[in-house]
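Data card: per-record layout.
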Amino acid sequence: MTLAEWFDDYEDRDWQTATSGTVRYAIIGLGWWATDVAVPAIADSALGETTTVVSSSREKAERVATENDIPHAITYDEFHAGETTDAYDAVYVSTPNAHHHEYVTTAAEQGKGILCEKPMEATVERAEEMLETCRDEDATLMVAYRMQTDPAVRRARELVEQGFIGEPVSVYGHNSQPLLEMIPDTDQWRLTPAITGYGTSVMDLGIYSINTARYLLDRDPERVQAMMASESEAFESLDDERASFLLDFGDVEMVSTATQNGQSDSQLKITGTEGQIELRPAFHGECRLHAVRGDRRADFDRAFGAEEEMCEEFDYFADRLLTDGAIEPDGEHALTDLRIIKALHEAAETGTVIDVEGEPNCRS
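The structure for this 364-residue chain is written out next.
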């Protein structure tokens, strides 16, 4: 079988075990990602439906509900008070980072399944509290790493696992976007340290390279180094308008860059002793896989946009809820990313190599 034929033989949704059932969602936080991507993704999903939307603004919640034929629209206070709690089985938390804690806590106490956007929270300590609450309440928590259900990324993981590139040697990652062109507001939450957490470029963009590399390599970094800088006025309260960093996985070195003030681009490349795989574009939708081994070259011709990636993610989560299946990107997995990012900022501040705290949390 040629490499191209092997790509063509790919099995869609190799993770799916549920054949029926529906998970009813309450979407908490109605920013553009939730309304433009998550709502249509759930509508297109096989195992989910949105029954409740939750916002600080009743007017906005009612408008989104009306436009999308969603039965219930409530405020944050009403969510905490348990309004319409019988109308949904799980929540999708899509608020800014520092507000994940309160909504995850309430959902856990309500006995709901929880799909929380990444990063898990603004700080390691707040994420640890969230995780402890979910454990105490026996609540299912998944963190929304949509790349882990993208077909191109899953195929790339198979290539690494099956030795197509030999032994992994190095990784290069990059993620950038012109944030203020996309959202021309210098008071937005991604530029507010108390809400975004450990900076902006690594928390919002670099996390894609970090987590996808962890997923593909099936291992976690042990030590990190970093350099960060902020020069533009809009980024003056943050230390990482741009960032470059090194992750030491023990036997694999990763170099990565991220910036919220650059041309939109994303890529992740893993080089091995016998071959190379590259995801480019990687994280902004339309993820494409390119593979090389000697004179053998092929592209995996399955490019999912962001809405399709989210549809896969919602159905993966629903599948796990309906079957009590194990979730790979759970709270422990996501907590490791925050520990890595915290260490990166400490490394940049001190100019030293920093050990990543916590126990290893790879899939094995």
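Known properties of this structure: The chain is about 35% helix and 25% strand. The first strand starts at residue 23 and ends at 28.

See the next section for split statistics.
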